Amino acid sequence: MAKTQSRFICQNCGAEYRKWTGHCDACDAWNTIEEERVEAGPKATGAITTGPRGKPLDFVALEGQSARPPRIITGITELDRACGGGLVPGSALLVGGDPGIGKSTIMLQAVGVLAARHKCAYISGEEAVDQVRMRAARLGLEKSKVDFAAATSLRDIISTLEQSNHEVVIIDSIQTMYADTLDSAPGTVSQVRACALELIRLAKRKGFAVILVGHVTKEGQIAGPRVLEHMVDTVLYFEGERGHQFRILRAVKNRFGATDEIGVFEMGDTGLVEVPNPSALFLADRDAPVSGTAVFAGLEGTRPMLVEIQALVAQSALASPRRAVVGGDSARLNMILAVLDARCGLPLSQFDVYLNVAGGLRVGEPAADLAVAAALISAVANTPVPAETVIVGEIGLSGEIRPVGQTEARLKEAAKLGFVNAYVPKQGQSAKKKLTIKGLKQVEIVHLQDLINLFGQDIGDKVRPREGMY
């Protein structure tokens, strides 16, 4: 009879300890270490070379032709885009997101469409049959030929899938699955790792695509061991704010396609509706130009996307003025403020600065620096950016404006939406020919001071501290 041993494992990162401690040294988390009981396997009696000889490996050359993996088209264009063109048979896909963001909804919509052409199974460990039926009726999918089951026992699920011929299997969620070979609660590191490994191994052996729905921690990371993301072929994060109707499905890992690809959805009464032109949707509420706003030509994966960046500069009565950023990078905002002060003589240290990316989208690429600076300067000068103007460029520490990648794709998207002006960096000597976009007038910005001059020469007088303020 195998002996049962106790070990203490961090539920956040999977680190193991010989005894309980309140602090995990690996991930710096508190109160995440729990005791788990496992059966000790037989101890090794010697080196591996003393046992039976293994069979020799067949080495091959890297040069050669390999067939591209076939794809299972879900019929939801934005989901297929995020997956790299569809689901790959025999692959494992992990979908994570905040509670209530729409993970179960988009998965049910996907299998509802796929069931017309492929044999699909949906296994839920969180909801009962009646709950899923109510959601299917709300989405108009009650007549879809989807094989549904509510189960949490990994042994029962494996036995069922062994005898079936499903092409797509969805597990909602992996944290609720339970392997009876482990003496630990569902959702622990050991359970999540063991259940995911068995499901992925079965999917690769039988050739069906398995989609694992995962919970996330309060920091936004997928709950459970980090090795779970290494085990799967594709990792998708469902992003969005509860106050906005937009949902972003972002690929952060994809062995069969590009990373950082996104799909855009809009939450409605009948579920998630895909948005084929997110630029027009993010800019739909723009009226007449107002000060403190600028349109940035961004790039998400291979998709150009135009978003509005808003800035507010207000006199502060505090010793340490506020710096609030929603949807952007606070470190880059501080850098831009420092460059405006040191290189352009525009001191904003005594002001509260608020920055917001409209629509709930998150922008992190350096190409947004020039648009952020334009919004700040526009707010200080109380002068709107010229109408129908798009801005893109990276700011260096010396104040120079550096070129960005795929400028042509960004500007073509702006011209398609009716923009007529563009503030862009000066093209370097490596450019083979001058970039021209029909209907779009380009203004080259060499230094950040050139952008300030477009708003007037008296901006510095508007940011001087008030007399007797301190």
Automatic annotation (TrEMBL):
> Which residue range or ranges hold the RecA family profile domain?
68-216
One GO MF term, please?
zinc ion binding
Q: Keywords, A to Z?
A: ATP-binding, DNA damage, DNA repair, DNA-binding, Hydrolase, Metal-binding, Nucleotide-binding, Stress response, Zinc, Zinc-finger
Keyword set includes Zinc-finger: yes
Quote the record's binding site residues for ATP. Answer: 97-104
Q: Which InterPro entries match?
A: AAA+_ATPase (IPR003593), DNA_repair_RadA (IPR004504), P-loop_NTPase (IPR027417), RecA_ATP-bd (IPR020588), Ribosomal_Su5_D2-typ_SF (IPR020568), Ribsml_uS5_D2-typ_fold_subgr (IPR014721), Rubredoxin_2 (IPR041166)
Motif RadA KNRFG motif boundaries: 253-257
The GO biological-process annotations, alphabetized, read as: recombinational repair
Q: What do the Gene Ontology cellular component annotations say?
A: cytosol
| Chain intervals for the UniProt region annotation (Lon-protease-like) | 352-470
Q: Which SMART domains match?
A: AAA
- Show the domain comment: The middle region has homology to RecA with ATPase motifs including the RadA KNRFG motif, while the C-terminus is homologous to Lon protease.
Q: What PANTHER family does the record tag this protein with?
A: DNA REPAIR PROTEIN RADA, DNA REPAIR PROTEIN RADA-LIKE PROTEIN
Function comment: DNA-dependent ATPase involved in processing of recombination intermediates, plays a role in repairing DNA breaks. Stimulates the branch migration of RecA-mediated strand transfer reactions, allowing the 3' invading strand to extend heteroduplex DNA faster. Binds ssDNA in the presence of ADP but not other nucleotides, has ATPase activity that is stimulated by ssDNA and various branched DNA structures, but inhibited by SSB. Does not have RecA's homology-searching function. Plays a role in repairing double-strand DNA breaks, probably involving stabilizing or processing branched DNA or blocked replication forks.
Return the similarity comment: Belongs to the RecA family. RadA subfamily.
Q: What name appears for this protein in its UniProt entry?
A: DNA repair protein RadA
Organism name: Thalassospira mesophila
